[in-house]
Protein 1
Amino acid sequence: MLTSKRLILVHFWLAFSLFGVALLLGAWQMFIRSPLHTWITNPEWYYRSLTAHGTVMAYVLPTLVAMGFGYAISESALEQPLIGRKWAWLGFWLVAVGAVTAMVPVALGLASVLYTFYPPLIGNVFYYVGIVLAVVGSWIWVALMSINLRAWKRTNPEKAIPLPMFANVAGSYLWAWTSIGAALELLLQIIPVALGLRSTIDAGLARVFFSWTLHAIVYFWLIPTYIAYYTIVPRAIGGKLYSDTMARISFILFLVIAMPIGMHHTFADPQVGAGFKFIHSAFTALVALPTLLTVFTICASVEIAARLRGGRGPFGWARALPWNNPIMLAVAFSFIMLGFGGAGGLINMSYQLDTTIHNTQWITGHFHLIFGGAIVIMYFAIAYDLWPHLTGRALTNFRMMRAQLWLWFIGMIVTTFPWHWVGILGMPRRMAYFDFTSPALQPQAFSVTISTFGSLLLVLSGVLFLLVLVQGQFAPRIEAGTYRFSTDIHPPIRIPAPLNGYALWVALMIGLTVTNYGFPIAQLALRSDTSVPAVYVGAQ
Amino acid sequence: MSNEPLFSTKNEWFVRSVAVTAAVFIVTALGGFVLLPYLQPDLRLGGLWDAICSAAGVVRQSAATASVKPDFKTSMVIMTSDMLRRPGSESVGHGATLAQQCAICHGPTGVSRADSPNLAGQYASTVYKQLHDFKSGARVNAIMTPFALPLSDQDMVDLAGYYAYLPRLPPFHSEQQLPAPRIVINGAPLRGIAPCGSCHGALDNKVGSPWLEGQSAAYLTAQLQAFASGARRNDISQQMRNIARKMTFEEMNQAAHYYASQPSEVVHATAR
């Protein structure tokens, strides 16, 4: 039963409208630095746009989607109205006000520091304060998810937590813990400097704190997508979930090992010891486990659906799948992009191979394929699936939905594959212009041009997506029925306590954070000779 | 649901998950802290503990890596954002008195009639750093060095504050305003040359980089050539030497004439 429809809808609308704006900025960036345009005369505009694009896409969009979807899961999976709706509204307004507070200085060119902050570069203090507000808003969501689950457990002491809520709360705990790294960086290091209380900053320590957040945040983005794989897809295509236990183990593994791996973002940094880089590299490899478990379970669930529809043969069943169902298309595209992106990720996480593609366009290609591709396409699917239940109006334009998903998939492949390629050729990332007339860069010009056209397809797809949602707001009213999640082949009757709670896993997550981050952070924090003068953006 | 305590050695889940996690950590730690250092032929290790410390990133004192001392004086000035603060009126007044001796070359209003730099409205951090470098010998000039030698640190702060306080006036020999050349706006990416404008105005300003609009083209070209030849070496991280060495003579001229032709009152020119 969905009773907080307005609350959830507002989260999605804010997320997707900002997404639309940031998508345009991204395409403009692709165009402006491609051979199709002459060199930009003021690179500051490029970095201004890049900061806005990154901040919206990495912080605002996924946080709002996770929050909105989380409230929907809490109400429909636990079948109880949301406890603390007023607090949820406060959380939403904090994210909204935070987003505006952060975006105003960016738009004015006072905080072109990129969404990864990059101290000693220091922008306007309101940029950082805005991000802190948004994160605090999301912490309210974390607390509410926990409170709602606790209330449900009190009234249902003998029941297993429904899978969607189990995963949702795991995601919220992961976020609560991983956001602390960037929060420490902002509150202890950057904001005092931005306020002028201090004029030097330990940039190396700041990067270590940020890596605490930077990698696990990816799994926070990913969790709504994985929840959709497990609890929306089987139901939407007329099948059943193959294994509830496997799903729980996947989410638990994310909780435990998503965190102590972030230093693979600092492989080229001198301030971190090689031994810790090696440990983080090895732990990163373990993240393949929950992903492979998921791929196996979802493929099995999809096969069940196909066989229920009369599919035959070892592979022939794939033909029996409902390919005109947007959710089916989305999950197939998502898996293909996850496969390629994951394969590329193996290069990034390897301590040795990383040196070949470090700081090149390969990295940009990688995270756009994984996040923009595999993850965001499932955000579209979640929105399509939930919309009729939120608006009470049917989404009927399936042709447009399919076209939108196809365009996003093709657009993302066309954008990111050439990016990977030019990365291997050595093209650096975060550059406002390239001298394609030079014989050294000329061979990359064609690939960069192709990827610019890919970004145009993405813009087209984004426009179609918003059109579908707007059409949905004006469609005739219907009774959408109760919002349900997938059922399992073997419904969970008796579940071991550790798969029905978080204490053990949260303890392991914190323990691994201490072992993998404790020494490098303490070492840098205690040394007195590691700070450098801050560089203020636009200072005179 | 089972009711046995979770954090107990009798709970199979607890024991196994903790054991597996600890085992993974120990194996990877052995790999990272023992195996990896020993596999590096260049790393001379004094035993296992040394290997572990090296892999943990503990700073090592090694005689073999004693820093090479340059055979010339380097700049001792540390540029911080504190240098952006406005000086008080007392400081400006004292600076004005001291500036009497500078007026013969740099002009009574801080605008030069010769090819020496215009100082009226120059950033305080810039004037302070150059005076400091002249005094320490990091920058050498037959005329400036004797003037800088007797100055105290406070004198240099006050002089810098005074010149920063003066209004920017039109240069004595003004040129017709030129459009920004590519070297100023885009630099030369493949030669690793950042745009001049990204530190010196036109696009952005960085602490310690002088404001160049309206300065003498002859002076600017001479300084670029001095950086390129190594005659001038007081740029803290060699950034100007690295840039100037890779610039062509034509690019130096273009940049110098562009800045010389800009109206001096322009602080943050928008690029065209």
Protein 2
Amino acid sequence: MLLVRCPWCGPRDEIEFRYGGQAGLTYPADPEALSDEEWADYLFMRDNPKGPFRERWFHTAGCRRWFNAVRDTGTHRFVATYRLDEEPPV
Amino acid sequence: MTGRRVEVGGAWIDRSRPIGFTFDGRELTGFEGDTLASALLANGIDVVCRSPILGRPRGIVSAGVEESSAFVEVSEPRFEPIVAATMVNLVDGLVATGRPGVGVLPFDPPPTTPTLHRHAHVEVLVVGSGEGWRPAVEEAAQRGDRVLLVEREPRLAAAGDGVTVLTNATALGLYDDGYAVVHERGPGRDTLWHVRAGRVILATGAHERPIAFADDDRPGVMLAGAVRTYLERFGVLPGERVVVFTTNASTDGLSDLLRQAGAEVAAEADVREGWAVAGTDGDPHVEAVHLVGPEGERRTVEADLVAVSGGWNPAAQLSRAIGGGLRYEEALATYVPDGTGPDWLEVVGTVAGVGLPPSAPYWYTPADDLSTHFVDLQRDQTVQDVLDAVEGGLRSVEHVKRATYIGTAIDQGRTSGVLAAEIVNAALGWELGAQGPTNARPPYVPVPFSVLAGMDRGPALLDPKRTTPIHGAHVESGAVFENVGQWLRPRYFPEDGEDLDAAVERECLAVRNAAGALDASTLGKIEVVGPDAAVFLDRMYTNRMSNLAVGSIRYGFMLGLDGMVLDDGVAMRLAEDRYLVTTTTGGAAAVLDRFEEWLQTEWPELRVVCTSVTEQWAVVAVGGPGARYVVTKIGTDLDLAAEAFPWMTWREGTVAGVPSRVCRVSFHGELSYELHVSSWHGRHVWDAVVAAGAVPYGTEAMHVLRAEKGYVIVGQETDGTVTPDDLGMGWIVNPSKGDFVGKRSLVRADTLRKDRKQLVALLPKDPTALVVEGAQLVRSADLPAPPVPMLGHVTSSYRSAILERTFALAMLKDGRAMRGGTVWATSGGHMIACEVTDPVVYDPEDGRRDG
């Protein structure tokens, strides 16, 4: 069980959280201006690296805040967690 | 092998405390501190069980968790279907029977041991008390760190101040970030510890490795370290005439120890001097041992015990399972942790390879016939079986494992793993250590399901049961309940022995012809408040919520980004900056999460707060042509006339003497008043409407009534692949209002396909034939050769009381164009012909909703 460092609550067990997939995907300002391909790319295509990965987490059973994390998908280790209004520290 | 208790040794037993136990029906005596294995040896019992596949007699090979041979069922004092005799602490009245490697569950499960689950948070967790743990722990304890040490054995030399010690406690697994699960076996109660540790120190020691030779599974062949343990700890001499077979210095002094205890040493076969054990004879236990010398010379000696040491394998399984690697250490002829793995894990002492004796790399004694050179005793697999697997083309030990099952038994290859790997390496002509043993996974030792399950709380499950404020009334009236998510909802209210069909028919007719009452309190309710609430809801729903007048209600869909229907509900505008939205009973939490997600991650600038108020409001839905009469009768200050209080509006007033928000919405097409009241008043209002003549109805009648009107249930008609247009509800999408979640996907090529499944109703041509929900739809009763083209599937199917016939809803390819046509439903082995119609089969003009 991962130990997740919520930027608001500190380290808590993984079961308090919900995983939110890749971070940094911003909802397009004008989806209708996008081609089908561009929209499908936003909708379906996700990075799947082995190594550091920016992802979103939701402290469902805690402060109920979304935050971001950099996690190494090879080792499951969190490199950092940070608030939505912060830049990725790494 | 003729073991006996001797005067020397026995540090762990109390010779003044005899303990009676039963093995295979024989009443025997041991001492307090014995294991079942040491007590059996002390009683001269050498054959504990038969091997699982070949039925060969098997004795005790080890003195610990690596046991691969002697397995028993324990029936008293607590049932364990299969366990190594070396792992059973002897207690008074213990009853055990030999088991051939496979346990048998009795038909009536015996009572399980009560188990607590406990949590511990420590700076340092020490697993095992093998060499090397003390320096790190003493330092930590001095610093004031919380230190927990778990030891599988029942005893441990003093651990020092500030260290909490659990004995009889085995770490089952290590997980991410210093999380460990530990099973502590108690006399009357077990505890499963969930430990979160800042640092884990692994001091699990090492396991001795056997050497394969002919008939090496015969009772009387034992690991040399185990021979020493039985003598030193338990005062048990496992044999009278001993052959010591070794590759390393760990057996130094063993012969002297045996002689002091009264045994004879028949021979010492040291691989480093060119001597080896070639095989054994005897029935059932070892009586003669065949030796082979450096020049190939052969000798046979009389002996009843072979003490074998083929070197030592660090017990690094827990480290490996969490990502720690191994490397081959040539001097030790084994694999040691290579320093990789999580940074919170420290592998110390013997398990790190420190202090292990150098060993010759010797895996088995060569012979023409290798078919009784057993490698994995519990799987009855030999050197020949491994060679056959390699001969068959397998190269990886992982594949050999799966072909032979070596390493898959209870001991997970603790004694056989390195042996099997090196036999494979050698057979392929690869160098030593080219590939290491297969991985072992948690749990480290078998654990009863009852321990994982935790405390027996009776019929109550871990998942909470949610009941409405009106639940007591339903129980009193004999309702039959169903689970809807976590909620318990009345499914129907049988009267006078009615079955489901009869009750549902009566309840449906009550709503259609008079008045019914539904407990709709389980509806998810979320208050959306703030200056930007209207903007926010416009973006979340397909239709416009911002132009909804205060006092009005609008039905809406929420879509996924992919354009598929996610949830539905109504939005009531309570004030300019305040809405109450309802969700499906099962979707409430997910919808709230979704609101939070968009507000926090995409639109933090919107000033909106969302609050779940599901449990603050009880909802009594009064529906049917008599609904106005019922609400009038219970007393209200509201003008219920349709002109004053029209469809899809809400009013605040008093009903049955309590404040209420009354909504003119309906899930059945009849005149309807949903009475939203404080939870405190739910029961009172329910009792009032029932006393006024409204007939209680349950979810089953609700389903029939809504289906007659073609109203969909998200999750029943929809399955995550259905758009509003597929449901014939394109009207609910307002493309002119600006962007909303899912909008762009509605014009994707796939969403615009003409042959998408569309919602229709099916009328079986035989009005008594009930189609099975989930039935596939095909074009004709005569099925062509497979693959048969599937046109769609039935999502809902009921008997309509008001129409006096059966009907169904279905998702049918290009269904709207097929109206008037016929499809066939495959239903319970029959083919039922159905006419395709518009999904609204009752009152399509909506003529009844104003009463």
